[in-house]
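Duplicate of #3305? Posting structure anyway:
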């Protein structure tokens, strides 16, 4: 088992041992920190959470609850912790965006109509759909982040907004894929579209293997 996985398992184990009120307090804080952004170092975040859990367990032994130990304003404490996280590297941000765009383009190519002449790409959808999908992901994570505090688990607006964003995004994707503008299509002749799919599949596999190898070396260091 790798160190990050062991850390996450220990966080889950210790959280389950907390009193219900402390468990709710810490779970909300954990979710608040985890949804602060797409690019923060997850390993560093989990190390910080584990350290806080160990401190809380010691405080529990002295009769202190999570609210008494950490304070009545977990949002401010969470914001302070977020500010201490190292700023994500531009390379990591571009790598994630490139992966999301690549996945979107792969589905665009797979769903494009094929004729005897080759594969016809809708350039409008090819350009705009990845931007829509990335924007929707960022908005949903932001909504989840801002809905955690003040602590109201019965609020309905995050679910409504999330459902609205998903509905609008899917509707726009369907419209863009069916809306072919004259002059805004590109034909990939046979057999080049088959070669392109093979190249993309090999590239995606290589990227995944490279990412896994990088994480393995990082964990072994």
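Output from current build:
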């Amino acid at each position: 088992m790798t160190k990050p996985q062991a850390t996450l398992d220990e966080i889950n184990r210790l959280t389950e041992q907390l009193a219900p009120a402390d468990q709710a307090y810490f779970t909300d804080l954990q979710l608040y920190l985890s949804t602060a952004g797409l690019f923060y170092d997850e390993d560093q975040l989990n190390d910080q959470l584990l350290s806080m859990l160990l401190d809380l367990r010691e405080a529990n032994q002295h009769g202190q609850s999570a609210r008494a130990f950490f304070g009545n304003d977990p949002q401010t404490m969470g914001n302070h912790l977020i500010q201490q996280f190292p700023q994500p590297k531009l390379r990591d941000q571009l790598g994630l965006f490139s992966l999301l765009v690549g996945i979107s383009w792969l589905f665009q190519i797979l769903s494009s109509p094929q004729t005897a002449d080759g594969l016809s790409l809708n350039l409008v959808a090819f350009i705009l759909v990845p931007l829509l999908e990335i924007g929707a992901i960022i908005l949903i994570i932001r909504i989840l982040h801002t809905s955690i505090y003040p602590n109201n688990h019965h609020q309905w607006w995050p679910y409504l907004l999330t459902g609205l964003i998903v509905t609008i995004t899917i509707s726009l994707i369907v419209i863009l894929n069916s809306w072919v503008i004259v002059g805004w299509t590109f034909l990939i002749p046979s057999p080049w579209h088959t070669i392109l799919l093979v190249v993309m599949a090999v590239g995606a596999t290589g990227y995944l293997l490279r990412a896994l190898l990088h994480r393995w070396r990082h964990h072994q260091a």
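Confirmed duplicate; merging threads. The radius of gyration is 23 Å. Strands lie at 118-122, 185-189.
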